[in-house]
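To whoever picks this up:

The parser on our side crashed when reading a file containing two proteins. I've narrowed it down to the boundary between the first structure block and the second sequence. Both blocks are reproduced below exactly, byte for byte. First block:
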Amino acid sequence: QVQLVESGGGLVQAGGSLRLTCAASGGTFDRYSLAWFRRAPGKEREFVAFINWTGGRTVFTDSVKGRFTVSRDNSRNTATLQMSSLKPEDTAVYYCAAEQYGYGKEIEDYEYWGQGTQVTVSE
């Protein structure tokens, strides 16, 4: 059983940056691929970014390419979503998800989820 806890959300002005962290416990971290999803007000949860278990492969949704990066530190059991040039449309609850040796952009592709952290980008 893997437990995931997101942190780092907050309020930021458009054009600013935030760094989200996903801390994992309860499993062998370097076996798990991680993904970030978000749910904006009134919308369904959507895929944002993916990083595989080695950190050697990353995937991003088109709307964040060039603005967001994802990384992981397997020695610390953490993953990071670095968000830059934030836009009001990035406002959402951001979730970290994990799946052993997984890959995918769908909610169903991931077994373990964190509770989410709120990101609010003001005009």
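<<boundary where parser fails>>
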Amino acid sequence: QLQLVESGGGLVQPGGSLRLSCAASGFTLDYYNIGWFRQAPGKALEGVSCMSSSDGSTYYADSVKGRFAISRDNDKNTMYLQINSLKPGNAAVYYCAGDLLRTMCVPNWGYWGQGTQVAVSS
């Protein structure tokens, strides 16, 4: 069974950092394009950052450039999203996703994690 399981969310003060993890099981993650998406209350699901499996190229939404970093550890079959300098507007449920073919960072990918909540408050 193909599965993505996220961890690492929580409550952080503005300016703080988090590292979200997403462990894959049932498939080899390094063959897949990987991505992180988020949904804030009352807003649509949006692409935050994505990485191509073919050449490692990355995409970041303008609002997170310079503060977020996507990565993968193929030995651990796990992807990560490092989030720095958190702002209240970054609060959302964050989802990891994988897809063999899709590369555009839009939320129509094939495999999804269950989501992890990131809250930002002082």
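After patching the parser it read the second block fine. DSSP finds no helices and eleven strands in the chain. The mean pLDDT is 96.
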